[in-house]
Automatic annotation (TrEMBL), chain A:
It comes from Paenisporosarcina antarctica. InterPro entries: Asp23 (IPR005531). Pfam families: Asp23. Belongs to the asp23 family. This is Asp23/Gls24 family envelope stress response protein.
TrEMBL record, chain B:
It comes from the Bacteria. GO terms for molecular function: glycerone kinase activity. InterPro entries: DegV_domain_contain, DhaL_dom, DhaL_dom_sf, FakA-like_C, FakA-like_M, YloV-like. This is DAK2 domain-containing protein. Residues 7-199 form the DhaL domain. One of its GO terms (biological process) is glycerol metabolic process. Gene3D superfamilies: 1.25.40.340. NCBIfam families: YloV (TIGR03599).
Length: 120, 555
């Protein structure tokens, strides 16, 4: 699965993994996110936070004809406003993909997989 | 002022919110990060006013309770990145003073510090050069000052001074700010809140609007927002960036009384990205328009035009993106193939391709039965013309040779002592081309620490190793370097190996099958693994390696 862009010089293929990596990288720069989670069911109520090279595991890129949909599985910090953090991730991801790959994303769906409590 | 109670604190919050509200437009205009959508001021203002409302409704003399109210109001009304950060800052502040009825200067400074700690906890990769940095620097200063100062007003003054200084430094930390020539918008918002705090403490009134900002700040931020939106020159709707100043003339203004709001309205019909700043003598205008003449004409109704500048943005843009106007043929300049190289060792064409696909510059053929010599490794490094190199032996018997190669090669080199292909893969994925050889060695070594490797090979003679009886031609399962089982059935051995390696924390299982295994067999095994360990992702590669039907890794 990959995204194809065509111009007069030829064709550019961007693999879905690349899209996933970029989306994941953009997401974790967002305030309130403490990690990306796997799209699997949470086990024992503990969500595993993915390491950097596996961000794409927490990002699902779906193509529907011309449209691009992204599902992201995130873990947020306790005490932040979840709806707002999720919205920030959506806008940051959409913006970053547009800026770096020139891709217009149809939807960015956020699945909050866990909450991390931190005690300063 | 030696102590601060809840009622005074509520006043401070109210003033901070009001001052931010007064300047929200300016904060909006500065907003280019994280997404240049120009809503930071609006969002912060909504967050802060929600906090202020809640504080006002529940203000009591007990500062702990008042701060709780602020924390709750901010959380409920948090909007945008900066709003969420603001809510975390004051959540930490509130938590710290929860049980206190009044605050001393030390308590006050400490509460700010605690707010910063709390805010930094809620982000994975804190971006410096933002509101976080401004909060952090200023809290640190407050702690220092409170060491020897018991007047809370002085502590707050110093805190604000440092916040402003820190805000000025944000462009040095965040490149996009420097590029656009603005300071961070969220940080600016926080400074406004702090300015309100100090004014309330001193019982001063703040000016209704601080017009301290320059047109240039706003224009470059505005341009930055615009430029982002264009992928194609043809998308530019208003092609001329038009800037001019109108110096009011008494006779003209007598006929057309100047009112900033109406003036802005009047100009807005000609284009977008409109900015108007005016005082009693002059109005500065910036607009993107398709009819710059009409804009100038409109301005002339009120006075003389001075300092006119009109740029054709389509031409500028196409120079940036290099279309239409550039038909040069690009010639490629020969460069060193891999100035910063990763050299590794493996058997099997498939594995070699896999290693290259994740970033290996060269893969030396070698492994279990044919260990490359120091010389082989040196030659490989020299053939790719590297200036810096990391060597990954992927086998414990090659580590020595790799280390010697690193010593004699004469360029910056380090060995990442990987003992298997999966470890090598994990290490390469952690490579950072920007980091030094030593730093890469450290991070790459950490990266494969959690990777568990299993291998299946066959016995060449009867023997007994690690307490396992082995017959010639048996398949042997080697888990993390130890033989755990030998049996004539490849399938049984494989299943036992998975059983030994996979636990419930496993996320990713990689199966690399060798030349002795058909694709069908490998797929069957993968299907079994997926079924049995459904919590992990299974990836299958055709490694084409000899001697090892399967190499697997679990991480």
């Amino acid at each position: 699965m990959s995204i194809e862009l065509k111009n007069e010089f030829g064709q550019i293929d961007i693999s879905n993994d690349v899209v996933g990596q970029i989306a994941g990288g953009a997401a974790i720069e967002c305030y309130g996110i403490v990690g990306m989670a796997t799209k699997h069911q949470i086990r024992d109520g503990l969500t595993d936070i993915l390491r950097k090279e596996n961000f794409s595991k927490g990002v699902l890129v779906r193509q529907n004809g011309e449209d691009l949909h992204i599902d992201m599985y995130i873990v947020i910090s306790y005490g932040t406003k979840v709806s707002e953090v999720a919205y920030q991730v959506q806008s940051k991801v959409k913006y970053t993909l547009n800026k770096t790959l020139g891709l217009a994303v149809k939807s960015v769906n956020i699945y909050v997989q866990g909450v991390r409590v931190t005690n300063p | 002022m030696k102590s601060l109670d809840g009622i005074q604190f509520a006043e401070m919050v109210k003033m901070g919110a009001h001052h931010l509200f007064q300047n929200a437009d300016y904060v909006d205009a500065l907003n280019v990060f994280p997404v240049p959508d120009g809503d930071t001021g609006t969002n912060m203002n909504l967050s802060m006013s929600s906090g202020s409302k809640e504080t006002e409704a529940h203000a009591v003399a007990h500062i702990g309770k008042t701060a709780q109210a602020l924390s709750k109001g901010l959380l409920m009304g948090a909007r945008g990145n900066s709003g969420v950060i603001l809510s975390q800052l004051f959540r930490g502040f509130g938590k710290d003073v929860e049980t206190k009825s009044t605050l001393s200067a030390k308590d006050f400074a400490h509460a700010f510090q605690h707010g910063v700690d709390m805010a930094y906890k809620a982000v994975m990769k804190p971006v410096e050069g933002t509101i976080l940095t401004v909060a952090k620097d200023s809290a640190k200063k407050a702690i220092e000052v409170a060491e020897h100062e018991d007047n809370i007003i002085v502590v707050m003054e110093e805190l604000l001074k440092e916040a402003k200084a820190s805000l000025e430094r944000t462009p040095d930390l965040l490149p996009v700010l420097k590029e656009v020539g603005v300071v961070d918008s969220g940080g600016q918002g926080l400074v406004y809140v702090y300015e309100g705090f100090i004014a309330a403490m001193k019982g001063e009134k703040l000016p209704e609007k601080t017009s301290s900002y320059s047109m240039d700040d706003l224009v470059s931020a505005e341009h930055h927002k615009k430029i982002q939106g264009f992928m194609d020159t043809a998308d530019i709707e208003f092609g001329y960036c038009t800037e001019f100043m109108v110096k009011f003339m008494p006779e003209k203004v007598a006929e057309n009384p100047f009112n900033e709001h109406d003036f802005r309205e009047g100009l807005s019909q000609f284009g977008d990205s409109l900015l108007v700043i005016s005082d009693d003598e002059i109005a500065k205008v910036h607009i993107h328009s398709e009819q710059p003449g009409n804009c100038l004409g409109y301005g002339q109704k009120f006075g003389d035009l001075i300092k006119i500048k009109i740029d054709n943005m389509r031409q500028q843009h196409s120079e940036i993106v290099g279309d239409d106007y550039k038909k040069d043929v690009l010639t490629s300049v020969p460069v060193k193939k891999h100035p910063y190289a990763i050299v590794t060792v493996a058997m099997g064409e498939g594995i070699s391709d896999l290693l290259k696909s994740v970033g290996a510059s060269a893969v030396i053929v070698g492994g279990q039965t044919m260990n490359p010599s120091t010389e082989d490794i040196v030659k490989a490094i020299e053939s790719i013309g590297a200036e810096k190199v990391l060597i990954l032996p992927n086998n414990k018997n090659i580590i020595m040779a790799a280390q010697q190669a690193a010593e004699v090669i004469g360029i910056e080199a380090a060995v990442v002592p990987t003992k298997s292909v999966p470890e090598g893969l994990a290490a390469i994925l952690a490579f950072n081309p920007e980091a030094t050889v030593e730093d890469n060695k450290t991070t790459m070594t950490e990266a494969y620490a959690h990777v568990k490797t299993g291998q299946i090979t066959f016995a060449v003679r009867d023997t007994s190793i690690d307490g396992v009886e082995i017959q010639k031609d048996d398949y042997m399962a080697i888990s993390q370097g130890k033989i755990i089982l030998a049996s004539p059935s490849l399938v049984d051995v494989s299943k036992s190996l998975f059983h030994d390696l996979v636990d419930e924390d496993a996320e990713i299982i990689t199966i690399i099958y060798g030349e002795d295994v058909t694709e069908t067999e490998a797929k069957e095994l993968a299907a079994f693994v997926e079924e049995k360990y459904s919590h992990a992702d299974v990836e299958v590669y055709n490694g084409k390696q000899p001697l090892y039907p399967y190499i697997i890794s679990v991480e």
